[in-house]
Amino acid sequence: MRIGFGYDVHRLAEGRPLILGGISIPSAKGLEGHSDADVLIHALIDALLGAASLGDIGTHFPDDDPYLKGADSRELLKKVMVMIRGKGLDIGNVDTTICMQQPRLSHYMAPIRESLSSILDASLDQVSVKATTTEHLGFVGRGEGASAFAVVLLNELKG
Ligand code: MG
What we know:
The chain is an alpha+beta fold. It has one domain: CATH 3.30.1330.50. The chain is 30% helix and 32% strand. The chain has five helices and seven strands. A five-stranded mixed beta sheet has the order 4-1-7-5-6. A two-stranded antiparallel ribbon has the order 2-3. The radius of gyration is 15 Å and the shape is globular. The protein starts with a strand and ends with a strand. The site of magnesium ion (MG) has 5 residues, from strand 1 and helix 1.
């Protein structure tokens, strides 16, 4: 078994879409970034790469690469899963937390979880998605940005 951890932060800005785990969420502000700024998928990618000792998201998807401008992070996650399986590893389970003050994300937990489990080709039981505010403290609490944490356990494929 191999464990991995990932963390990411993106700034919130008006006029940007809010996309978390590949799901579009109605919001006055969205996350800013070179790609679609899906902070949850980015943290998850770093956790997967970390578990497989394959570097980090910036190694594989540099944020100055014009090809990646506006990139759909689901496609990046799919590419990472090919790398993971190429190393003879597969998902044991995934646990994630999104930190965001607004909007409230409780209604979106189920669709985000379904979205991630589909991309990972894992069962719902293998994928956990949680959300928390930070009680108005810090950059998340002030609504300046969002962060996400992810841990994954990978198992070696048999045979
Ligand atoms: Mg990022």
